[in-house]
Amino acid sequence: MSFILCNTFFYLDTCFCCTLINFINIYVQLFMGAVHSYASPDDFWLKYSVPSIDSITGLAGRKKYKMTKIIGMLRSLKQRVDTDDAALAKKKYASPNEFLKWFSYRKGAKIYPLKNVAHIARLYRKMNECPRFWDVEEDIEEEISDTES
After folding, report:
1. Is 52 inside a domain boundary?
2. Are 36 and 131 in contact (CB under 8 A)?
3. Engineering a disulfide at 121: which of 70, 85, 110, 111 sits with its beta carbon 3.0 to 4.6 angstroms away?
4. Rounded to whole angstroms, what are the CA distances from 77 to 3, 4, 133?
5. Domain span at 85
6. What does the pLDDT read at residue 8?
7. Angle at CA of residue 138, ends 134 and 142, nearest 5°
8. When comparing pLDDT for 59 and 10, which is higher?
9. pTM, rounded to two decimals
């Protein structure tokens, strides 16, 4: 990682910045998808907050979780649901040929089965038309081809 001093600001080299921006973008999309999956933002905050009493006024209210905790909870939820959906896919398409027919990718002349749980789960949900808020339609095929190669 290289730094360049310019007008008293530090600029990170482009490769690191792009990686960092992509990393942040993933969590922003996850958070915003979660908020939009509820009927209203108040419903979202009801789930991701705890009851509290204001020490000054004595009124009851809610204390929102910190972003780090919310992202951790959303990642756990995603991992749990993806694992369950991938297990359902493997159970539904139990024979190796049937699984390979639906959950594989081609690399050259060879066909390889998907191994990533999230990819299997996402494809299974797409086939059954029951996507989750973290399933971004345009990214499904692109991500599978990028990470499995």
Report:
1. no
2. no
3. 85
4. 37, 40, 11
5. 66-149
6. 43
7. 100
8. 59
9. 0.72
Rounded to a whole number, what is the distance in angstroms from the first to the last CA of the chain? 27
Q: Where are the beta strands (DSSP E) in the chain?
A: 3-6, 9-12, 49-53, 60-64, 104-107, 110-113
DSSP 58: -
Q: Is 129 within the bounds of a domain? A: yes
- Check residue 15 and give its pLDDT: 66
Backbone angles phi, psi at 63, to 5 degrees: -105, 120
pLDDT value, residue 66: 94
Backbone angles phi, psi at 27, to 5 degrees: -75, -35
Question: How far is Cα 65 from Cα 14, in angstroms, rounded to an integer?
Answer: 33
Q: Considering the domain boundaries, does residue 14 fall inside one?
A: no
pLDDT per position as a tens digit, 112-141: 999 999 999 999 999 999 989 988 754 545
Provide the domain count of the chain.
1
The rounded Cα 50 to chain-centroid distance in angstroms is: 24
DSSP of 110-135, one letter per residue?
Answer: EEEE---HHHHHHHHHHHTT---TT-
- pLDDT (tens digit per residue) in 57-67: 777 788 999 99
Query: If DSSP codes are grouped into helix, strand and coil, which group holds residue 60?
Result: strand
Q: Does residue 108 fall inside a structural domain?
A: yes
